Structure formats: C-alpha cells, structure tokens
C-alpha cells in the first residue's frame, strides 16, 4: 500500500504549487511524443516539428498580447527568471537591481548570487502589511541614482499570499528613466488578465505546470529591443538567447495550456473567487481567531492564506494531509527544514506568526466538495495542533 | 528516521506490526549547509533524503521536524558548559532525555500519535508489576540501553524499539531484502554535531573566549611538581594519555595519565595508571526507569559500549542521588559521564557521575 492509497480521495488545495494538466495540454503533448524531428533540421520531419513549435509560439503570443518573436522557451519559471535577471544585468552593465522583498526564490536567489559574485547592488524594496510594494520606496530608490539601475524586477502576483503588485506604477516610474522591468507572472497567468504589451514590462516569466501545462517548460517573454546575455550557449536556438534542442511536445502542451487558461480566465476568476471567499468565511466561522493574510482588494482569486494563532503550520499541514487534504505552509525548504516565510516576515509578521500560517490555493479542478471537506476537518485539526504548541523560535 | 539503516528497518517492522506509522526526520542542526560535506553527522541533507527514500519504499508519510533550537539549547549548550566545567558529558543520553523521548514525543502525542519508535537496540517487556521494563538488546555488541538509561516509565510506556531482538547483521540483511537502499550505509559513531569528529578542535572553537581557562600547569599528583603547561583544559579527558606533551619522563619511566582537571585554575593533574582506578562513584540527577530502589546489588555501565562492573548501589536523596560501590576498580571514569544501573539485563536507572573516589586508599577526588 502506498502513502497516497491510504486515503480514498485527495482534496487537492495546492494549485499554486502545481495544477493538474488540462485535457487539451495532455492531448497536444502526447500528440507530439511519437513524432520524430528536430525543429532545427532542414528536412521534412524537421520542418514539421519547427511548424509545431512556431505555431505554438504564435498561439502563446496571441494569448499574451506579445509578438511571437518575443517568446523565448525555457525549461520553466526558474530558468526564465535567471535568464531575465542575469541576462539583463550583464547586457546592461549597470550595478543596481531593484526588486521587492517578497519575490519568489527563483528571483531572490539569482539576485543574491549576482550580489555575491558579480558585484550587483541589490536593493529589496519594502512591502506593506498586505504584501504590496511601497511604490514611494521604489520611486525614492530609483531617483537616488537612476542611471545606475540596470533593471527592476517586481512579481505580478505573490505566490504565497496572492497579493497583486502595482505593476502599472512600477512601469510608470521605470519608464521615466528608461529602466527595463521584469515581472514573474507565473502565478498571475490564467488567474488575472495578463497582457504583455499593455503591461509595459520588458520581460515576463511564465511556466507550464502552473497553468495546466507540462512540467519542465516555460518561457521568458522579452521585448525584441531588449538585449539579453545568454546563460546557456550552444546551437543558438531561441534567438541565440537560449540554446538547446527545442522540446516540441512540451512546447505544444504549453501552448495548449496557455490558450485554455487565458480563454477561461474571466469565468474562472469569478468561480474561484467565490469558492475562495466561501472557504475563508467558513474557516473563520469554525476558527474565529483565524486571520486572513494578504491584500483583500488586490489579490489572486484562488489564494486563501490564513494564520492560525497558537498552531505550528507544519502540524496543521501534517494533520490535514493525514485526512487527505493537501495544502502548503508556503515556506521555503532548506534541506527539508521549514523556515519562516520571507514573504510574511517582509509583511511585518513575527517568526511565530509566519510559522503559524497555511496556504490553500484553488484551481481549475477545485469544486465545492473540496471546500466542504476542508471546513469539516479544520476545527479538530486546529484544536489538536494547538495542543502540540508552537516550537521554540529561532533566537 | 535518521537516514540510517536501523531506523529504516525499525519503521518497516512497526508498519508490519500493523501500526499506522509516520516517518519523522529530525532537523537538529541550525545550519544544515555547514554540515553538508561532513557526511557523518545525523543532520545532513543526504541523510534527510535517505530517510525520505526509506519512507517512500515503506509507503508511509514522511515529514521533517525542526528541533534545532531545542537541540542547540538542551544538548549542544549543555555539552559545552559541561566541558567548560571540566566534566565529560555524553550528548546522546541528553538528546534521548530532552529531545527524542521528550520534545519529539510530547509533540507526537499532542498530534495524536501513541508512541515513538526508534532504531535503538534495546528491548522492552512488560514486567510482573505491570510496568514496562527495558532490557539490553540481544546483540550485546550493538546494545544501546546505556544511552536510553535516562528514560522514565512514562517515556518507556510510549516507546517502541523494534530492533532490540535482532543482531545487526540480520537488520542489514532485512534492509536489503526490503529494498531499503541504506542497507550498506556505515554506522555512525561520532557525535553528530561535530562533523569531522575532532571534539577538541570543535570545543576550542565554540568555547573561544568563554573557555574556563586559556592554559595552566600540568602537575604531578604525588609531588605537586610542575611538569609542563598546556593551552587550555578544554579537550582534556580523565584517563587521557596522549597529547600531554610532557618533556620529562616520569622517574619510574611509566606513562602518565590525566587524573584530574581543575577548570578554574586550569591545573591538570597527572600520574600513573593505578591512580586512575576508582571504586566509589557518587551520582546526581538520577533517573529511574521504574520503581525507585533503596539499594541494589547489580551492575553498572560507565560509558557507551563500556564494560559492566559489579556494584552495590545505595539510593539517596529520595531517589535523586546514588552512591555506587564497585566490587572491582574501574579506570578513567570522569565526572559528567553517566552511570547506568542494571539488574541483570534490566535497566534500573541512571545517574550523572559527580565525583569518584578510591575506598581502599581513601585518595578521593
């Protein structure tokens, strides 16, 4: 008997970690698995594969409001973030990089690396208690020495608490000084309207497995006018920015998923927001001292992030897992050692508060029964986790 | 589940016995990355991954629990302060007493679990009085009842040691048969938080300016003559022979051993081997596995994997302290070590050695 088989039905409320592939994506992906042909080859098989890739690129461009030539396929969100940050930093040769303190580790870690090894002056900008960038802090930071700023990176929406960032204001400030803006839109795509051209950003990260597509494929959408130093050298694929044999099946799956997700976005937004609001309201009715984290006005529709005072997030997660309910503490893992979330700490929470939070993220397969199951389980689970107490905080 | 072969097989046996088992790996290092290359500790990333893989093979849920703060305060800090005071502590007993069968057990029970099962080699049995008795493992070479001698009846009642009835070779074979990839992993022997095994170097670095002294004299036990100096008592152990760097040989040409360490003055007393022999031990902080005896004719074990010594034990201070009279002298026994008291194969209790003496000559220390 396997771990998964121990409970009959899994209530999957961790779509922000990864979401099931949509039928259209599975079909597009599997349809290409048995075709032979390197898209870079000149013969008929190669031309066929190239056609699939380029049609996929066009469909993604159509869905995102960008030009096909602006889509650079990568192995996923982390690579796209690395490419944007390192590629723009090296291409522009200016020392300062500005980002929010609540970026994903796929942004923060490359920035720390650039600071440590490449002389970058990284400034992490504060957010308010809801996790939203303090725009005036960004303005002040830029105006301190705008010429020295190589790029600004601000995520479209936060992966933990779901807060949407004021990207239009970021672009406005950056454009006054001609500074390129990168945004990690991994969580936003399919959840809120994402239009590359209209947003005014210069580079945008997306990944397949968060929008119902395959793992291991994503893209950096980057304006043609923006120079990016490549990280991976080789055969010169993808505008010479990202070498490596092009993964035709994965890209076909990605395109199908993006198309479906963008088409369904408006309807899904309403459906998920209603489910999420119901979930939060009913949890708070059962656990009256539960405190929602995040911005009530500017947020993703499927994110519910709550603090359960007196509980260890890890205890809650384990107890829910034992009942077949899957969620996340939203914290990064270092050798499996749970750390207090840097996002919640940046929002001004204490270590204990940060460690007593859970993220439930809803997605395209979530139904009312999932919310019902969670609401039915949460009361006793919180009670038991409270009895287990909070572990000693880091001194 | 440490990531080693013993806890993996213990978990497998608990599953097979019909228990609903969840695998827990303890994160005990505050900075796991610093131990990454050490590889012999119990807190490396590789060990965590090995434990996870074993849980996968067994089909059980698996989590990492972070007890690094508790471990640091209750085990590492205690280890340091004991050494600073000139004593020689055993951190494994301390960890079992404060972490594995206390903080971890308490959390587990609060979360709805009934017991903690570990890969320790010891046996639990129900006694005639209805209490749980702990006995030495069948495999005396692997027996770990010594480091469990601090457990009380409440703790034993919520413990499972599925390996106590098996020799180690059988456990390794079983691991291989069950497809547990850790079957060939070497046993760990060192103190888990000292990655390179250099206890002296680690202590010197950690204690730094808070070391009790930064040097002192090495003195002959009989004449009081100063034989040399040293750079600090940290790392000296009673019974130690090597590394004293005394230029002059003893008058009788025989090797000299550390007999006593005075942490405040930094004085290290040395003398011949027979001066190490003691037959009276005072113990404090006694812990009892079951009923507290008044007195006992049994055996004591004075270090991990050490010999059994026949002894008479008198219990004092309402069970808080013991006076142990050894039938035959023992050598190199240092304050801070644990004396674990046995009645046959049964663990009766334990105490921390506070002083040793020689009854016959009266030359107590």
UniProtKB/TrEMBL annotation, chain A:
Keyword check for Lipoprotein: no
InterPro entries, A to Z: Aminotrans_V_dom (IPR000192), Aminotrans_V_PyrdxlP_BS (IPR020578), Cysteine_dSase (IPR016454), PyrdxlP-dep_Trfase (IPR015424), PyrdxlP-dep_Trfase_major (IPR015421), PyrdxlP-dep_Trfase_small (IPR015422)
EC number: 2.8.1.7
UniProt keyword Transferase, yes or no: yes
GO MF annotation list: cysteine desulfurase activity; iron-sulfur cluster binding; metal ion binding
Residues in Aminotransferase class V domain copies: 11-374
Cofactor(s) in the UniProt record: pyridoxal 5'-phosphate
Superkingdom, natural source: Bacteria
Family per similarity comment: Belongs to the class-V pyridoxal-phosphate-dependent aminotransferase family. NifS/IscS subfamily.
Protein's name according to its UniProt entry: cysteine desulfurase
Organism: Nocardioides donggukensis
Taxonomic lineage: Bacteria, Bacillati, Actinomycetota, Actinomycetes, Propionibacteriales
Automatic annotation (TrEMBL), chain B:
Site positions per UniProt: Interaction with tRNA: 120, 337
Chain positions recorded as ATP binding sites: 26, 119
Family: Belongs to the MnmA/TRMU family.
Pfam family, one: tRNA_Me_trans_M
Cell compartments where the protein resides: Cytoplasm
Gene Ontology molecular-function annotations: ATP binding; tRNA binding; tRNA-uridine 2-sulfurtransferase activity
Taxonomic lineage: Bacteria, Bacillati, Actinomycetota, Actinomycetes, Propionibacteriales
Sequence ranges assigned to domain tRNA-specific 2-thiouridylase MnmA-like C-terminal in this UniProt record: 283-353
Disulfide bonds: 95-192
EC number: 2.8.1.13
Catalytic reactions on record: S-sulfanyl-L-cysteinyl-[protein] + uridine(34) in tRNA + AH2 + ATP = 2-thiouridine(34) in tRNA + L-cysteinyl-[protein] + A + AMP + diphosphate + H(+)
UniProt cross-references to SUPFAM superfamilies, sorted A to Z: Adenine nucleotide alpha hydrolases-like
Keyword vocabulary terms for this entry: ATP-binding, Cytoplasm, Disulfide bond, Nucleotide-binding, RNA-binding, Transferase, tRNA processing, tRNA-binding
Active-site annotation: 95, 192
Role this protein plays: Catalyzes the 2-thiolation of uridine at the wobble position (U34) of tRNA, leading to the formation of s(2)U34.
Location (main, coarse): cytoplasm
One GO BP annotation of this record: tRNA wobble position uridine thiolation
Broad EC category: transferase
Region annotated Interaction with tRNA, chain positions: 142-144
InterPro entries: MnmA-like, MnmA-like_C, MnmA-like_central, MnmA-like_central_sf, Rossmann-like_a/b/a_fold
Gene that encodes the chain: mnmA
Domain tRNA-specific 2-thiouridylase MnmA-like central: 212-271
Gene Ontology annotations for the cellular component aspect, listed alphabetically: cytoplasm
Naturally occurring in which organism (per UniProt): Nocardioides donggukensis
Name under which the protein is recorded: tRNA-specific 2-thiouridylase MnmA
């Amino acid at each position: 008997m396997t771990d998964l088989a121990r409970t009959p039905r899994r209530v999957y409320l961790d779509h922000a970690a990864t979401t099931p592939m949509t039928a259209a994506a599975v079909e597009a992906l599997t349809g290409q698995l048995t075709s032979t042909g390197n898209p870079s080859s000149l013969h008929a098989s190669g031309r066929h594969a190239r056609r699939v890739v380029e049609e996929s690129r066009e469909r993604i461009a159509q869905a995102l409001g960008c030009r096909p030539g602006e889509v650079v396929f990568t192995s996923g969100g982390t690579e796209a973030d690395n490419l944007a940050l390192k590629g723009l930093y090296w291409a522009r040769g200016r020392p300062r990089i500005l980002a929010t303190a609540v970026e994903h580790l796929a942004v923060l870690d490359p920035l720390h690396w650039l600071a440590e090894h490449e002389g970058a002056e990284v400034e992490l900008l504060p957010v308010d208690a809801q996790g939203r960038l303090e725009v005036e802090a960004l303005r002040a930071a830029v105006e301190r020495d705008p010429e020295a700023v190589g790029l600004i990176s601000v995520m479209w929406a936060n992966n933990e608490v779901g807060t949407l960032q004021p990207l239009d204001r970021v672009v406005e400030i950056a454009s006054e000084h001609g500074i390129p803006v990168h945004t990690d839109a991994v969580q936003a795509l399919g959840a809120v309207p994402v239009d590359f051209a209209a947003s005014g950003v210069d580079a945008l990260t997306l990944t397949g497995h968060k929008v119902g597509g395959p793992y291991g494929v994503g893209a950096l959408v980057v304006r043609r006018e923006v120079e990016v130093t490549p990280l991976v050298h080789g055969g010169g694929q993808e505008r010479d920015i990202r070498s490596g044999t092009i993964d035709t099946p994965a890209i076909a799956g990605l395109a199908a998923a993006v198309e479906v997700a963008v088409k369904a976005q408006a309807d899904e937004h309403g459906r998920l927001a209603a489910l999420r609001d119901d979930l939060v309201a009913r949890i708070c009715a059962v656990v009256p001292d539960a405190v929602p984290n995040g911005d009530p006005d500017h947020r993703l529709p499927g994110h519910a992030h709550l603090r359960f005072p007196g509980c260890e997030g890890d205890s809650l997660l384990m107890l829910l897992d034992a009942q077949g309910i899957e969620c996340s503490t939203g914290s990064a893992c270092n050798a499996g050692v749970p750390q207090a979330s840097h996002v919640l700490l940046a929002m001004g929470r204490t270590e204990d508060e940060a460690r007593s939070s859970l993220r439930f993220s809803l997605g395209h397969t979530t139904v009312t029964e999932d919310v019902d199951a969670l609401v039915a389980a949460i009361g006793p689970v919180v009670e038991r986790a409270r009895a287990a107490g909070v572990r000693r905080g880091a001194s | 589940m440490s990531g080693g072969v013993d806890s993996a097989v213990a978990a497998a046996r608990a599953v097979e016995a019909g228990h609903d088992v969840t695998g827990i790996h303890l994160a005990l290092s505050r900075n796991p990355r610093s131990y990454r290359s050490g590889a012999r500790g119990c807190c490396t990333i590789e060990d965590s991954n090995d434990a996870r893989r074993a849980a996968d093979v067994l089909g059980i849920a698996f989590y990492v629990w972070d007890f690094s703060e508790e471990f640091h305060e209750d085990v590492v800090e205690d280890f340091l302060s004991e050494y600073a005071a000139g004593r020689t502590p055993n951190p494994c007993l301390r960890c079992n007493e404060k972490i594995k069968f206390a903080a971890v057990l308490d959390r587990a029970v609060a979360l709805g679990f009934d017991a903690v099962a570990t890969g320790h080699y010891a046996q639990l049995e129900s006694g005639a009085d209805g209490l749980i008795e702990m006995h030495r493992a069948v495999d005396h070479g692997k027996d770990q009842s010594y480091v469990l001698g601090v457990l009380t009846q409440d703790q034993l009642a919520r413990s499972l040691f599925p390996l106590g009835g098996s020799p180690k070779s059988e456990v390794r074979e079983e691991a291989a048969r069950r497809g547990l990839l850790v079957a060939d992993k070497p046993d760990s022997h060192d103190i888990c938080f000292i990655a390179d095994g250099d206890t002296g170097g680690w202590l010197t670095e950690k204690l730094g300016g808070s070391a009790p002294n930064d040097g002192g004299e090495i003195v002959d036990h009989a004449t009081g003559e100063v034989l040399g100096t040293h750079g600090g008592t940290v790392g000296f152990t009673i019974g130690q022979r090597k590394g004293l760097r005394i230029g002059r040989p003893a008058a009788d040409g025989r090797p000299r051993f550390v007999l006593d360490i005075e942490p405040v003055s930094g004085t290290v007393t040395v003398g011949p081997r027979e001066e190490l022999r003691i037959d009276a031990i005072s113990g404090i902080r006694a812990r009892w596995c079951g009923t507290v005896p008044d007195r006992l004719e049994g055996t004591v074990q004075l270090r991990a994997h050490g010999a059994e010594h026949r002894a008479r034990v008198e219990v004092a201070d309402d069970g808080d302290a013991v006076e142990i009279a050894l039938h035959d002298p023992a050598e190199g026994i240092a304050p801070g070590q644990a004396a674990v008291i046995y009645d046959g194969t049964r663990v009766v209790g334990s105490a921390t050695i506070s002083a040793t003496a020689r009854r016959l000559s009266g030359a107590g220390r």
